[in-house]
Design a protein that fits this description.
The complex is a heterodimer. Chain A is 66% helix and 0% strand. By secondary structure, chain A is an all-alpha fold. Chain A has one domain: Butyryl-CoA Dehydrogenase, subunit A, domain 3. Chain B contains seven helices and six strands. The model of chain B has no long low-confidence stretch (mean pLDDT 94). Classes of the chains: A mainly alpha, B alpha/beta. At the A-B interface, helix 2, helix 3, helix 5, helix 6 and helix 8 of A face helix 1, helix 2 and strand 4 of B.
Amino acid sequence: MSTSRSPGAGRLQHVTLKQPFETIVAEHGTTVLRVCRAVLGTADADDAWSETFLAALKAYPQLAADANVEAWLVTIAHRKAIDITRAAARRAMPVADVPAEPIEDGRDLDLAAALAALPRRQREAVAYHYLAGLPYADVAAVTGVSTDAARRAAADGIARLRKTYPANGESS
Amino acid sequence: MNTNHDADVLRDLPAVTEADLAALHARLAERAADDGVLDVAYRTLDTPVGTLLLAATEAGLVRVAFPIEGHDEVLQALAARISPRVLRAPARLDAVSREIDEYFAGRRRSFDLPLDYSLSSGFRREVLTRLPGIGYGTTASYATVAATVGSPRAFRAVGTACATNPLPVVVPCHRVIKSGGDLGRYRGGPDAKRFLLDLEAAA
Protein backbone atom coordinates (compact mmCIF):
# COMPACT_ATOMS: atom_id res chain seq x y z
CA MET A 1 0.00 0.00 0.00
CA SER A 2 1.06 3.58 -0.36
CA THR A 3 2.48 4.06 3.11
CA SER A 4 5.88 3.73 1.48
CA ARG A 5 7.72 6.05 -0.82
CA SER A 6 6.18 6.65 -4.20
CA PRO A 7 8.41 5.83 -7.16
CA GLY A 8 10.86 8.60 -7.81
CA ALA A 9 10.40 10.28 -4.45
CA GLY A 10 13.79 8.99 -3.35
CA ARG A 11 15.53 10.92 -6.09
CA LEU A 12 14.24 14.23 -4.84
CA GLN A 13 16.08 13.81 -1.54
CA HIS A 14 14.02 16.54 0.04
CA VAL A 15 13.80 16.60 3.79
CA THR A 16 10.26 16.05 4.95
CA LEU A 17 9.65 17.45 8.40
CA LYS A 18 7.44 15.41 10.66
CA GLN A 19 4.52 17.55 11.71
CA PRO A 20 3.45 17.92 15.35
CA PHE A 21 0.92 15.17 16.11
CA GLU A 22 -1.66 17.86 16.85
CA THR A 23 -1.66 18.64 13.13
CA ILE A 24 -2.39 14.99 12.33
CA VAL A 25 -5.40 15.04 14.66
CA ALA A 26 -6.61 18.34 13.21
CA GLU A 27 -6.28 17.18 9.61
CA HIS A 28 -7.58 13.62 9.94
CA GLY A 29 -9.73 13.54 13.08
CA THR A 30 -12.99 14.16 11.25
CA THR A 31 -12.36 11.59 8.54
CA VAL A 32 -11.32 8.91 11.02
CA LEU A 33 -14.46 9.54 13.09
CA ARG A 34 -16.68 9.25 9.99
CA VAL A 35 -14.93 6.00 9.09
CA CYS A 36 -15.33 4.61 12.62
CA ARG A 37 -19.01 5.57 12.69
CA ALA A 38 -19.63 3.96 9.32
CA VAL A 39 -17.85 0.72 10.22
CA LEU A 40 -18.93 0.32 13.86
CA GLY A 41 -21.94 2.55 14.35
CA THR A 42 -22.09 5.70 16.45
CA ALA A 43 -22.08 3.97 19.83
CA ASP A 44 -18.64 2.36 19.45
CA ALA A 45 -17.12 4.95 17.13
CA ASP A 46 -15.78 7.20 19.88
CA ASP A 47 -13.90 4.31 21.48
CA ALA A 48 -12.47 3.27 18.14
CA TRP A 49 -11.37 6.85 17.41
CA SER A 50 -9.70 7.15 20.83
CA GLU A 51 -7.90 3.82 20.51
CA THR A 52 -6.81 4.69 16.99
CA PHE A 53 -5.29 8.06 17.82
CA LEU A 54 -3.70 6.85 21.05
CA ALA A 55 -2.01 3.98 19.18
CA ALA A 56 -1.04 6.36 16.38
CA LEU A 57 0.48 8.83 18.87
CA LYS A 58 2.57 6.05 20.40
CA ALA A 59 3.84 4.84 17.03
CA TYR A 60 4.19 8.28 15.44
CA PRO A 61 7.91 8.85 16.11
CA GLN A 62 8.68 5.68 14.12
CA LEU A 63 6.46 6.55 11.16
CA ALA A 64 8.36 7.45 8.00
CA ALA A 65 8.22 11.20 7.47
CA ASP A 66 6.84 10.77 3.94
CA ALA A 67 4.29 8.09 4.86
CA ASN A 68 0.69 8.28 3.68
CA VAL A 69 -0.79 9.32 7.02
CA GLU A 70 -4.42 8.76 6.02
CA ALA A 71 -3.78 5.15 4.95
CA TRP A 72 -1.76 4.57 8.11
CA LEU A 73 -4.58 5.88 10.32
CA VAL A 74 -7.22 3.85 8.48
CA THR A 75 -5.09 0.74 8.92
CA ILE A 76 -4.95 1.34 12.67
CA ALA A 77 -8.66 2.18 12.83
CA HIS A 78 -9.48 -1.03 10.96
CA ARG A 79 -7.62 -3.12 13.53
CA LYS A 80 -9.14 -1.25 16.45
CA ALA A 81 -12.62 -1.73 15.00
CA ILE A 82 -12.00 -5.47 14.79
CA ASP A 83 -10.77 -5.49 18.41
CA ILE A 84 -13.86 -3.65 19.57
CA THR A 85 -16.19 -5.96 17.66
CA ARG A 86 -14.46 -9.03 19.11
CA ALA A 87 -14.57 -7.64 22.63
CA ALA A 88 -18.29 -6.99 22.21
CA ALA A 89 -18.80 -10.55 20.97
CA ARG A 90 -16.89 -11.95 23.97
CA ARG A 91 -19.17 -10.03 26.28
CA ALA A 92 -21.98 -11.93 24.55
CA MET A 93 -23.92 -8.80 23.93
CA PRO A 94 -26.50 -8.69 21.19
CA VAL A 95 -24.67 -8.06 17.93
CA ALA A 96 -25.65 -4.50 17.26
CA ASP A 97 -24.64 -4.30 13.66
CA VAL A 98 -26.85 -7.07 12.37
CA PRO A 99 -30.45 -5.99 11.97
CA ALA A 100 -32.94 -8.12 13.84
CA GLU A 101 -35.39 -8.15 10.97
CA PRO A 102 -34.62 -8.98 7.39
CA ILE A 103 -34.64 -5.85 5.30
CA GLU A 104 -37.26 -6.15 2.67
CA ASP A 105 -37.98 -2.73 1.42
CA GLY A 106 -35.84 -0.78 3.88
CA ARG A 107 -38.13 2.22 3.69
CA ASP A 108 -37.77 3.01 7.37
CA LEU A 109 -34.03 2.76 7.57
CA ASP A 110 -31.93 5.84 7.96
CA LEU A 111 -28.53 5.94 6.35
CA ALA A 112 -26.56 4.85 9.40
CA ALA A 113 -28.82 1.84 9.81
CA ALA A 114 -28.53 1.07 6.11
CA LEU A 115 -24.75 1.11 6.47
CA ALA A 116 -24.95 -1.08 9.55
CA ALA A 117 -27.01 -3.56 7.57
CA LEU A 118 -24.30 -4.02 4.93
CA PRO A 119 -22.01 -7.03 5.13
CA ARG A 120 -18.88 -5.97 6.99
CA ARG A 121 -16.57 -6.24 3.96
CA GLN A 122 -18.81 -3.92 1.96
CA ARG A 123 -19.15 -1.48 4.84
CA GLU A 124 -15.37 -1.34 5.28
CA ALA A 125 -14.74 -0.91 1.56
CA VAL A 126 -17.32 1.88 1.32
CA ALA A 127 -15.91 3.66 4.39
CA TYR A 128 -12.24 3.38 3.44
CA HIS A 129 -12.72 4.26 -0.22
CA TYR A 130 -15.53 6.80 -0.16
CA LEU A 131 -15.12 8.38 3.28
CA ALA A 132 -11.35 8.16 3.77
CA GLY A 133 -10.58 8.53 0.06
CA LEU A 134 -8.16 5.59 -0.10
CA PRO A 135 -7.52 4.10 -3.53
CA TYR A 136 -8.74 0.50 -3.95
CA ALA A 137 -5.19 -0.85 -3.72
CA ASP A 138 -4.92 0.64 -0.21
CA VAL A 139 -8.40 -0.54 0.74
CA ALA A 140 -7.31 -4.02 -0.38
CA ALA A 141 -4.12 -3.86 1.69
CA VAL A 142 -5.99 -2.71 4.80
CA THR A 143 -8.71 -5.35 4.55
CA GLY A 144 -6.54 -8.19 3.27
CA VAL A 145 -8.31 -8.85 -0.01
CA SER A 146 -7.42 -8.33 -3.66
CA THR A 147 -7.81 -4.93 -5.27
CA ASP A 148 -10.59 -6.28 -7.48
CA ALA A 149 -12.40 -7.69 -4.48
CA ALA A 150 -12.10 -4.34 -2.69
CA ARG A 151 -13.49 -2.52 -5.73
CA ARG A 152 -16.39 -4.98 -6.00
CA ALA A 153 -17.16 -4.75 -2.29
CA ALA A 154 -17.32 -0.94 -2.47
CA ALA A 155 -19.49 -1.01 -5.61
CA ASP A 156 -21.82 -3.64 -4.16
CA GLY A 157 -22.06 -1.70 -0.92
CA ILE A 158 -22.98 1.55 -2.66
CA ALA A 159 -25.51 -0.25 -4.88
CA ARG A 160 -27.13 -1.81 -1.85
CA LEU A 161 -27.22 1.50 0.03
CA ARG A 162 -29.05 3.05 -2.91
CA LYS A 163 -31.76 0.44 -2.53
CA THR A 164 -32.00 0.49 1.24
CA TYR A 165 -31.70 4.25 1.71
CA PRO A 166 -34.43 5.70 -0.46
CA ALA A 167 -33.84 9.33 0.41
CA ASN A 168 -30.89 9.29 -1.94
CA GLY A 169 -33.06 8.48 -4.94
CA GLU A 170 -35.20 11.55 -4.34
CA SER A 171 -32.35 14.01 -4.15
CA SER A 172 -30.02 12.89 -6.91
CA MET B 1 -12.75 14.52 0.00
CA ASN B 2 -13.61 12.76 -3.23
CA THR B 3 -15.86 13.95 -5.97
CA ASN B 4 -17.04 10.59 -7.15
CA HIS B 5 -20.81 10.80 -7.65
CA ASP B 6 -21.10 7.18 -6.54
CA ALA B 7 -20.66 8.45 -3.00
CA ASP B 8 -23.63 10.81 -3.15
CA VAL B 9 -25.61 8.32 -1.13
CA LEU B 10 -23.19 8.93 1.78
CA ARG B 11 -23.62 12.66 2.00
CA ASP B 12 -26.54 12.34 4.43
CA LEU B 13 -24.33 10.79 7.10
CA PRO B 14 -24.54 12.89 10.26
CA ALA B 15 -21.92 15.62 10.32
CA VAL B 16 -18.97 15.43 12.68
CA THR B 17 -19.30 18.53 14.88
CA GLU B 18 -16.58 20.56 16.55
CA ALA B 19 -18.03 19.51 19.90
CA ASP B 20 -17.62 15.83 18.93
CA LEU B 21 -13.98 16.36 18.09
CA ALA B 22 -13.28 18.59 21.10
CA ALA B 23 -14.53 15.89 23.47
CA LEU B 24 -12.48 13.20 21.73
CA HIS B 25 -9.42 15.42 21.67
CA ALA B 26 -9.64 16.12 25.40
CA ARG B 27 -9.92 12.41 26.11
CA LEU B 28 -6.94 11.68 23.87
CA ALA B 29 -4.80 14.27 25.66
CA GLU B 30 -5.75 12.81 29.03
CA ARG B 31 -5.01 9.22 28.03
CA ALA B 32 -1.75 10.22 26.34
CA ALA B 33 -0.59 11.86 29.56
CA ASP B 34 -1.66 8.83 31.62
CA ASP B 35 0.28 6.51 29.29
CA GLY B 36 3.39 8.68 29.37
CA VAL B 37 3.34 9.47 25.63
CA LEU B 38 2.42 13.15 25.84
CA ASP B 39 5.97 14.30 25.16
CA VAL B 40 5.05 17.95 24.54
CA ALA B 41 1.82 19.50 25.83
CA TYR B 42 0.91 23.02 24.84
CA ARG B 43 -1.71 25.72 25.13
CA THR B 44 -1.99 29.42 24.38
CA LEU B 45 -2.53 32.17 26.96
CA ASP B 46 -3.70 35.72 26.32
CA THR B 47 -1.49 38.30 28.03
CA PRO B 48 -0.85 42.06 27.71
CA VAL B 49 2.17 41.25 25.50
CA GLY B 50 0.13 39.12 23.14
CA THR B 51 -1.01 35.52 23.01
CA LEU B 52 1.80 33.38 24.40
CA LEU B 53 2.38 29.79 23.38
CA LEU B 54 3.26 27.67 26.42
CA ALA B 55 4.75 24.20 25.98
CA ALA B 56 5.81 21.67 28.60
CA THR B 57 7.47 18.27 28.65
CA GLU B 58 7.00 15.85 31.54
CA ALA B 59 10.05 17.54 33.10
CA GLY B 60 8.62 21.05 33.04
CA LEU B 61 8.00 24.20 31.04
CA VAL B 62 10.15 23.98 27.92
CA ARG B 63 9.06 26.89 25.72
CA VAL B 64 7.29 30.23 25.95
CA ALA B 65 6.77 31.86 22.56
CA PHE B 66 5.55 35.28 21.47
CA PRO B 67 3.14 35.77 18.55
CA ILE B 68 5.87 37.32 16.39
CA GLU B 69 7.81 34.05 16.53
CA GLY B 70 4.96 32.25 14.73
CA HIS B 71 3.34 29.63 16.96
CA ASP B 72 3.09 27.07 14.15
CA GLU B 73 6.79 27.39 13.43
CA VAL B 74 7.60 27.04 17.12
CA LEU B 75 5.49 23.86 17.38
CA GLN B 76 7.18 22.46 14.27
CA ALA B 77 10.57 23.17 15.85
CA LEU B 78 9.52 21.46 19.09
CA ALA B 79 8.42 18.41 17.07
CA ALA B 80 11.85 18.30 15.45
CA ARG B 81 13.96 19.09 18.51
CA ILE B 82 12.11 17.25 21.28
CA SER B 83 9.48 14.85 19.95
CA PRO B 84 6.71 14.86 17.32
CA ARG B 85 4.31 13.67 20.04
CA VAL B 86 2.95 17.19 20.45
CA LEU B 87 -0.64 17.78 21.53
CA ARG B 88 -2.72 20.73 22.64
CA ALA B 89 -3.25 19.65 26.23
CA PRO B 90 -3.87 22.55 28.63
CA ALA B 91 -3.96 20.54 31.87
CA ARG B 92 -0.17 20.22 32.16
CA LEU B 93 0.06 24.02 31.87
CA ASP B 94 -2.49 24.95 34.51
CA ALA B 95 0.09 26.05 37.10
CA VAL B 96 2.18 27.85 34.47
CA SER B 97 -0.84 29.75 33.21
CA ARG B 98 -1.92 30.70 36.70
CA GLU B 99 1.52 32.04 37.63
CA ILE B 100 1.88 34.01 34.40
CA ASP B 101 -1.59 35.50 34.91
CA GLU B 102 -0.57 36.51 38.43
CA TYR B 103 2.68 38.00 37.14
CA PHE B 104 0.89 40.21 34.62
CA ALA B 105 -1.61 41.23 37.29
CA GLY B 106 1.31 42.46 39.41
CA ARG B 107 0.64 39.84 42.07
CA ARG B 108 3.67 37.60 41.45
CA ARG B 109 7.35 38.55 41.61
CA SER B 110 8.99 35.20 40.94
CA PHE B 111 8.00 31.93 39.32
CA ASP B 112 7.87 28.66 41.16
CA LEU B 113 7.68 26.19 38.29
CA PRO B 114 9.65 23.15 37.09
CA LEU B 115 11.64 24.25 34.03
CA ASP B 116 13.01 22.09 31.25
CA TYR B 117 16.13 23.74 29.81
CA SER B 118 16.67 21.05 27.19
CA LEU B 119 16.38 23.52 24.29
CA SER B 120 19.50 25.28 25.57
CA SER B 121 22.95 23.87 26.06
CA GLY B 122 26.42 24.87 27.09
CA PHE B 123 27.13 28.50 27.81
CA ARG B 124 23.64 29.69 26.90
CA ARG B 125 22.11 27.30 29.35
CA GLU B 126 24.57 28.39 32.01
CA VAL B 127 23.54 32.01 31.44
CA LEU B 128 19.81 31.29 31.49
CA THR B 129 19.93 29.35 34.75
CA ARG B 130 21.51 32.43 36.42
CA LEU B 131 18.90 34.93 35.24
CA PRO B 132 16.26 34.21 37.92
CA GLY B 133 18.87 35.61 40.32
CA ILE B 134 18.22 39.11 38.92
CA GLY B 135 15.49 40.40 41.20
CA TYR B 136 12.05 41.53 40.13
CA GLY B 137 12.01 45.20 39.20
CA THR B 138 15.80 45.40 38.79
CA THR B 139 18.07 45.09 35.78
CA ALA B 140 21.59 43.90 35.08
CA SER B 141 23.88 44.61 32.15
CA TYR B 142 25.05 41.96 29.71
CA ALA B 143 28.57 42.57 31.03
CA THR B 144 27.49 42.01 34.63
CA VAL B 145 25.82 38.72 33.74
CA ALA B 146 28.94 37.70 31.81
CA ALA B 147 31.01 38.37 34.92
CA THR B 148 28.54 36.36 37.03
CA VAL B 149 29.08 33.27 34.90
CA GLY B 150 32.85 33.75 35.11
CA SER B 151 33.40 34.94 31.52
CA PRO B 152 33.52 38.74 31.80
CA ARG B 153 34.48 39.21 28.15
CA ALA B 154 31.61 37.07 26.87
CA PHE B 155 28.96 39.81 27.05
CA ARG B 156 28.07 39.32 23.39
CA ALA B 157 27.45 35.64 23.98
CA VAL B 158 25.32 36.61 26.97
CA GLY B 159 23.36 38.87 24.63
CA THR B 160 22.78 35.96 22.28
CA ALA B 161 21.76 33.68 25.14
CA CYS B 162 19.18 36.25 26.27
CA ALA B 163 17.93 36.94 22.75
CA THR B 164 17.36 33.24 22.15
CA ASN B 165 15.94 32.40 25.59
CA PRO B 166 13.36 29.62 25.02
CA LEU B 167 11.59 30.60 28.26
CA PRO B 168 11.08 34.38 28.07
CA VAL B 169 8.99 36.11 30.77
CA VAL B 170 9.47 33.15 33.15
CA VAL B 171 13.29 33.18 32.86
CA PRO B 172 13.71 36.96 33.10
CA CYS B 173 16.06 37.79 30.25
CA HIS B 174 14.09 41.03 29.91
CA ARG B 175 15.96 42.26 33.01
CA VAL B 176 19.26 42.14 31.14
CA ILE B 177 19.95 45.38 29.23
CA LYS B 178 22.88 47.20 27.71
CA SER B 179 25.30 49.01 30.03
CA GLY B 180 24.27 52.37 28.57
CA GLY B 181 20.61 51.69 29.31
CA ASP B 182 19.51 50.60 25.82
CA LEU B 183 17.16 47.67 26.05
CA GLY B 184 18.98 45.31 23.67
CA ARG B 185 17.44 42.47 21.72
CA TYR B 186 14.36 40.57 22.86
CA ARG B 187 12.55 37.59 21.41
CA GLY B 188 9.18 39.26 21.88
CA GLY B 189 10.34 42.53 20.33
CA PRO B 190 11.43 45.77 22.07
CA ASP B 191 7.86 46.80 22.99
CA ALA B 192 7.32 43.59 24.95
CA LYS B 193 10.62 44.06 26.81
CA ARG B 194 9.71 47.66 27.65
CA PHE B 195 6.27 46.54 28.83
CA LEU B 196 7.70 43.92 31.21
CA LEU B 197 10.24 46.35 32.69
CA ASP B 198 7.55 49.00 33.17
CA LEU B 199 5.21 46.46 34.72
CA GLU B 200 7.83 45.47 37.25
CA ALA B 201 8.83 49.07 37.96
CA ALA B 202 5.23 50.00 38.68
CA ALA B 203 4.34 47.09 40.93
